[in-house]
Amino acid sequence: MEKPKTPHILLLPYPATGHINPMLHFAKYLASKSIQITLIVPTQGAKSPALANLPPSISHAVIGDDSDQPTLFNEDKTVDLETHFKRFRSVYIPNLLEFIHRQGWGRNPDETAYPKAMVYDSTMPWLLEVAAEKGMKAAPFFTECCGVNALCYHLNKGNVTFPYEEEFPYRLPSLPALEAGDLLYLPDKVDKRGDIVRYLAAQFELLENADYILVNTFYHLEPEVLDWLEERYPKQRAIGPTFLLPGIDAETAAPQQESYSEWLDSKQPNSVIFVSFGTIVTFGGNQMEEVAHALLMSNRNFLWVVRNTEEVEKLPREIRESEAGLIVNWCHQSRVLSHPAVSCFMTHCGWNSTLEALSIGVPIVAMPRWTDQTANAKFIEDTWRVGVRLKRGWKSDEIFGRERIAKCIEEVVNGVELRKNCLKWKALAVEAVRRGGTSIDSVEEFVRELLLIT
Ligand SMILES: O=c1ccn([C@@H]2O[C@H](COP(=O)(O)OP(=O)(O)O[C@H]3O[C@H](CO)[C@@H](O)[C@H](O)[C@H]3O)[C@@H](O)[C@H]2O)c(=O)[nH]1
User: Which parts of the chain span the membrane according to its record (predicted)?
Assistant: First the structure.
């Protein structure tokens, strides 16, 4: 008997865990619908823990980029980010075209094996042209929140100029009033010329030609800004939180790192401060020391993810030897957040971490560093009201002191209103991905319309 024909789709994340994770969750959901998936990761992302437990239903390829170049956010040298991004693109595109050619999927787009669509990270908008050249539908995937996307839209259309004009607050349609410290930026020592802001704004290049625009958020979290952007881009859909899509395993942790599970199990409900700063930012020794002392001052249990062993060694001895805490270099974050022992989450406010906390219902101590994190922290405190932020001044690389951090922890741990709000967002997030929910309906629509299957 002839095997049933399934459509094939390419997924192309940007090579960073915070970008691979949400797209991979989406890929797993599509794979569970018998859609054939090929996940293509540039070499810089090949070692991401997100890729540790790929299911056999997802084919996986690594394609050369410019990874012998300096790391993207290198604080020791001022990296010319514009050159970095240009080189990435100029190396990646020919390698991708050659990869597609080598697969023998054929040139005829009617062939079943030939990918019908390309879902690509929105920070690589130039992939739309590759999709068009290869006769595939183009679906950019945004890994940041819609409020941040709207900021990028205004930057791209010139409604907001960079360097920012000092007429704060900015009042932009569908967004709350924004102060300078709420906007996208990187400190001068990492990105003097604002290349990262331009790179993020460029997500809106060519966007009107996209067949679908996927955003990892959910409708009830950002209704005004989603509606506002949808008026301009009718094919925009909120499909998140992708880590909650049904039937997927959102596992990202290396299995040998599970000692923390037993440790968490041994703790009282609501007794542990969970601290994790994502996969890119580093805060530097002095800031880490202040965090360490704030945790000690809180007199509570803590579970702290410090990615790098050298960083752990630089922490004060009292924290390394403290019986109240555990320091690990990786964990299954969404599982930790779901543990009843966890009472609050100190985070750098990367969008995945923010969305995970919101959807699991854990209040936040927001300690943003840069890019979208400052805006996310603003929304966490003032829009969703699920946390307290350590507020940065404009372009400030100030070190937050231990007293200030400890005060935020106390406010969050004791915040009755915050906890109520958390439960509200949690319920709405879960509803979005349930049968008939806004996000799941959008995913099903995508599958039906773009891949032409029912
Ligand atoms: O021990 C850990 C640490 C992290 N994670 C996961 O790693 C992801 C981290 O993503 P995120 O919180 O978004 O942080 P970054 O890694 O910093 O993400 C980058 O990408 C995001 C999406 O574009 C942006 O919002 C951030 O600012 C940018 O730094 C999350 O899914 C976490 O659950 C784990 O599973 N275990």
Answer: none
